[in-house]
Amino acid sequence: MAVPQLQSRARARPRVVTAVLSLIGYALVAGAFTGTLPLPEISTDAVILLGDAIAVVNFFALCSILAGVYFIRNDAVRKHRAAMLTAFGLIMLFLVLYLTKVGAGFEKEILAEGVVWGAYIAMLAVHILLSAVSVPVVLHAVVLGLTHSPAELRETIHARVGRIAAAAWSLSLFLGLVTYVMLNHIYMWQPR
């Protein structure tokens, strides 16, 4: 099937495309956590390296989202599109790195107690919840953005969905970075 045909179908049914892509993403993550996604086992050093790489990717994804918000507020549509597609590409890279880290390696558990542990768990829970909820919202904004011209987008829910996506996605990435620093650079951890 040619790319114009795919774009035409996605344009005609953006919610269906969003739902299918969301389910694929959720299935990949579930497969990594349950061990049903076939990945070769990796070393502890590789898990640590992937964790650091994920943090770098997420930092640049957050910067790209914030730049995209700035650009659209200043009516720089082409720059907005480039920034948001960069953020989306970085999140796809994150997904590959994360699935490899979780599915082929292990998760880390923070060695903290009391208020610190509670704050860490609360931030991690919000990060995970926002990450899961953001998937279809972000995908819908991207699908609409890729299948409509800027003039046509004004007639869609792209701006409304985009605002929700940018807010949820940014907060999720920020909290992910805070918990990464706590886990890897302030407190100790153990494999879970």
UniProtKB/TrEMBL annotation:
Keywords: Membrane, Transmembrane, Transmembrane helix. PANTHER family: DUF420 DOMAIN-CONTAINING PROTEIN, HYPOTHETICAL MEMBRANE SPANNING PROTEIN. It holds the Pfam family DUF420. The chain crosses the membrane at residues 16-34, 46-70, 82-100, 120-143, 164-183. The lineage of its organism: Archaea, Methanobacteriati, Methanobacteriota, Stenosarchaea group, Halobacteria. It comes from the Archaea. This is DUF420 domain-containing protein. The keyword Transmembrane applies. InterPro entries: DUF420. The keyword Signal does not apply.
